[in-house]
Amino acid sequence: MPSKQDILDLYFMDARHKLIDIAAFLDRVDRHEGNPDFRYDGFHHALEAMLKPGDVPRAQAVLESLSDHTTEPIPKATIQGAFGAVNPSP
Amino acid sequence: MKYIEPHAHMVSRTTDDYQAMALAGCEVICEPAFWAGFDRTSAQGFYDYYRQLTDYEPKRAAKFGIDHYCWLCINPKEAEDAGFAREVMAIIPEFIDQANVLGIGEIGLNKNTVSELKIFEEHVDLAKKHDLPILIHTPHLEDKLKGTRLIIDALNNANVDPGRVIIDHVEEHTAGLVLDSGFWAGMTLYPESKCSLPRAVDILENFGMENIWMNSACDWGVSDPLAVAKCTIEMKKRAYSKDTIQKVIYDNPVKFLSQSKHFNL
User: Fold this and answer.
1) Which is nearest to A63 in space by CA: B145, B47, B201, B226?
2) Residue A70: how many CB atoms within 10 A of its CB?
3) Which residues contact A16 (CB under 8 A, 6 or more apart)?
4) pLDDT digits (tens), chain B, 265 positions
5) Min Cα–Cα distance to chain A from B117, Å
6) CA–CA dist A11, B201 (Å, integer)
7) Domains of chain A: which residue ranges?
8) A63/B238 CB distance under 8 A
9) ipTM of model over 0.95
10) Is B199 on the interface with A (CB under 8 A)?
11) Of the residues B4, B56, B102, B190, which has the fewest C-beta atoms closer than 10 A?
12) What's this model's pTM, rounded to 2 decimal places?
């Protein structure tokens, strides 16, 4: 199995590239006019979940942060797609 | 390296894709019935689609030396109208005995609605009645966790043998739920959503190599019919042996699919 050093050699540059893309995405939203919708807050909450995942792995914490945690089926679909973050007031 | 593509929507792909997959080592493709990207306007549209899956597409695949199998259902995106869904489901038994039909799928949930869940349960009943394995689609993005939980609850309530059910499109937050309940898990390798190649290998490392497969789920959207073959390179980068890679991309699919009476390598 690869060592931590091997994993860094394999994936650091790719992860660095994606991290800067995320920072640039947030700057881009901030720079433009108007108000962001619920996805903006959802994204920030997911970033916090990544930094403080508790007792689960970071990827799981991020996915759970971006998930609907209600338990009952909804009466009817209003759209067919999904947004990627939970709309608190659909 | 030989492999099985256990979830691909080849009706949306070109002959170039078939050729590339054959060159990459693909020996078998399994095609679940799915949403066409738009809602069909009549049950007859599904009749023609089932004819395509059971008659025309196997012949197209055979031209590239690939065996083609399929799963039948009405997908959850078109299950919101329960009356329409039942009209379509009434057609399915006519096709169940076709030589390339594996079972019922990809059924499941999309927006986790009451109607979707009811039609899902009726599909499960149909599979049980005909003693067929089941392939399940889990919802997208923010709906996946809730949908996976609802699906598992419904399957447990129906007393389905979990070893004959594969729950697809798992990610880090649902793989454990699925595998710990005794079901098979499928990982979908997508360029923009679901699993990236490195994350799929991470899931294998975290949850093990048993009762799990990977697929491209290539369709009419942004997707890569060679994703499974490319993931073998990802596994090689992490120094997995050829035997381990073959287990994930060939032996595991064979083990699950062999539970269908029509699957024959």
Assistant:
1) B145
2) 10
3) none
4) 999 999 999 999 999 999 999 999 999 999 999 999 999 999 999 999 999 999 999 999 999 999 999 999 999 999 999 999 999 999 999 999 999 999 999 999 999 999 999 999 999 999 999 999 999 999 999 999 999 999 999 999 999 999 999 999 999 999 999 999 999 999 999 988 889 999 999 999 999 999 999 999 999 999 999 999 999 999 999 999 999 999 999 999 999 999 999 999 8
5) 8
6) 13
7) 1-33, 36-64
8) no
9) yes
10) yes
11) B56
12) 0.97
Q: Report angle CA A46, A51, A52 to the nearest 5 degrees.
A: 90
Residue B167, SS3 per DSSP: strand
Rounded Cα distance, A77 and A57, in Å: 32
Asked if the C-beta of A88 comes within 8 angstroms of chain B's C-beta atoms, the answer is: no
Q: How far is it, in rounded angstroms, from Cα B135 to Cα B31? A: 10
Output phi, psi for B135, to 5 deg.
-115, 130
Chain B residues touching residue A84 (CB < 8 angstroms): 141-142
B219: CB partners within 8 A, 6+ apart: B8, B9, B12, B13, B34, B37
Distance CA B168, CA B180 (A): 15
Q: CB of A75 within 8 Å of any CB in chain B?
A: yes
Distance, C-alpha A51 to centroid of its chain:
12
Distance (Å) of CA A53 to CA A57, A59, B84, B144, B205:
7, 9, 44, 19, 19
Say if the Cβ atoms of B116 and A71 lie within 8 Å: no
Burial group, residue A55, by CB count within 10 angstroms (0-12, 13-18, 19+): exposed
Residues 6+ apart with CB under 8 A from A17: none
